[in-house]
Structures are given as C-alpha cells and as structure tokens.
C-alpha cells in the first residue's frame, strides 16, 4: 500500500485529475501497532537511534494493550538498505515469525529496505514511517496542528534540522515544476 505522505503528492494528484487524501506515514504508526497488538504480532523497529527506539517501545508498552516488542535495530550512519547489514537485520526480523516492522530511515532508504524485506522476510509487514518513531518517542517534535493544516509541516521540520533537511527539500522543490507539467498533461 502506498499513501500520499506529503502535500505535493496531494496537489499533483489533484492536478492530474485524481484526488487523494493526505496520509503521513507518522499518522499510521499507532493504528498499525494497535492492529499488530490485537493480532498478537511482534513489532520490530529499524532506524532512528537506539534511544528513540527504546523510548517508542516503552511508550507502546504503556499505551497499547497487548503490545509485543520485537527487534529494535538502530543502524549506523551510512547504512545501506540493500547491503549485508540490511540482510542481517532482515534475518533477525524474519526469525521472530510474522509481525510488523516500522522503518524509520527516511526516503528512499526505508522503501528500499522494505522492498528487500518483502523477499527476505515475506511474513513481515513493513511500514515506512519516517520520523514517526521519533515523534512517538519524543525525540522530535511534530509540527502543531495549525501548521499542518496550512500545509507547512515541511517548513517546521526544515527549520528543526536545516543542515539535513534543507538540501532534501530544495531538491524536491526543484523537480516540482516538471512534475506539475507531467500531472497536467496526464489530466488531458
């Protein structure tokens, strides 16, 4: 399942004549963990920091009845989502049996890891949640509701980590005009 994780996707879809609703991956974290708990499945997490993963797991245990912690893996900087360390992590996740794995690596690393996971750990559900784990753990602050309502969460996040996020958002903004033209042509 792929969701519209950002307002530019929503806007481009509307321009192409296909309206979709915004669904940030971070908004899916609690419902997915609650569903896994109800099904008696373990929840693993990969990404973020060891501290953030532990804090998120502790919070889930306190707030979600039936939560079963799985493997918590905080990969080192430069983690290759398709390399040997990724394969080792997937073996650990697979060996727990069917479950859920929240991936908090950021795009496109988390999507690459999930794609590899589909073949190496096929009984696991993978969810790319970006900063969702860090929001739950309290290691990052989510933009206030009024900022999100104005479609400015990207600016809030960029200001919170400018060295890391400004180049990423600038690269995305650079391709928007071409993508808008492509969406408009698709409509016709």
UniProtKB/TrEMBL annotation:
<dbReference type="Pfam" id="PF03808">
    <property type="entry name" value="Glyco_tran_WecG"/>
</dbReference>
<keyword id="KW-0328">Glycosyltransferase</keyword>
<keyword id="KW-0808">Transferase</keyword>
<protein>
    <submittedName>
        <fullName>WecB/TagA/CpsF family glycosyltransferase</fullName>
    </submittedName>
</protein>
<dbReference type="InterPro" id="IPR004629">
    <property type="entry name" value="WecG_TagA_CpsF"/>
</dbReference>
């Amino acid at each position: 399942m792929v969701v519209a994780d950002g307002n530019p996707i929503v806007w481009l879809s509307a321009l192409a004549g296909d309206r979709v609703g915004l669904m940030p991956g971070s908004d899916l974290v609690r419902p997915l963990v609650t569903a896994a708990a109800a099904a008696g499945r373990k929840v693993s997490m990969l990404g973020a920091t060891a501290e953030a993963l532990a804090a998120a797991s502790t919070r889930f245990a306190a707030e979600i009845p039936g939560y079963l912690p799985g493997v918590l893996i905080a990969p080192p900087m430069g983690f290759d989502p398709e390399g040997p360390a990724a394969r080792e992590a997937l073996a650990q996740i697979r060996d727990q049996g069917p479950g859920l794995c929240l991936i908090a690596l950021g795009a496109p690393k988390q999507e690459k890891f999930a794609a590899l996971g589909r073949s190496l750990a096929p009984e696991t559900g993978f969810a790319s949640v970006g900063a969702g784990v860090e929001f739950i753990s309290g290691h990052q602050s989510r933009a206030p509701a009024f900022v999100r309502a104005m479609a400015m969460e990207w600016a809030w996040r960029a200001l919170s980590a400018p060295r890391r996020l400004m180049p990423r958002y600038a690269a995305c903004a650079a391709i928007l005009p071409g993508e808008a033209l492509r969406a408009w042509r698709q409509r016709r």
